Amino acid sequence: MTRSWWGWGAAAEELSPSEVAELVARTAGMLPGHDFTDHAPPDPAALPVAPARLRPPATLAGLCSDDPVDRLSHARGKAFRDVVRNLLGQVGHVPDLVARPGTEQDVVDLLDWCSATATPVIPYGGGSSVVGGVEPRFDGAAISLDLGRLDRVLDIDPTSRTARIQAGIYGPALESHLRPHGLTLRHYPQSFGYSTLGGWLATRAGGHFATLYTHIDDLTESMRVVTPAGVSHSRRLPGSGAGPSPDRLFLGSEGILGVITEAWMRLQHRPVWQVTASITFDNFHRAVSATRAIAQAGLYPSNCRLLDAAEAFINAGVTVDGGLLLVAFESADHPVDTWLDRAVELATEHGGTVRARRSKDTTTEDAVAGGGPEPGEAWRSSFLRMPYQRDALARRAMIVETFETACTWDNFENIHEAVTAAARAVITRVCGAGVVTCRFTHVYPDGPAPYYGIYAGGRWGSTVAQWDEIKAAVSQAIIDNGGTITHHHAVGRDHRPAYDRQRPDPFAAALTAAKGALDPAGVLNPGVLITSDAVRT
Question: How far apart are CA 340 and CA 183, in angstroms?
Answer without folding.
Answer: 24
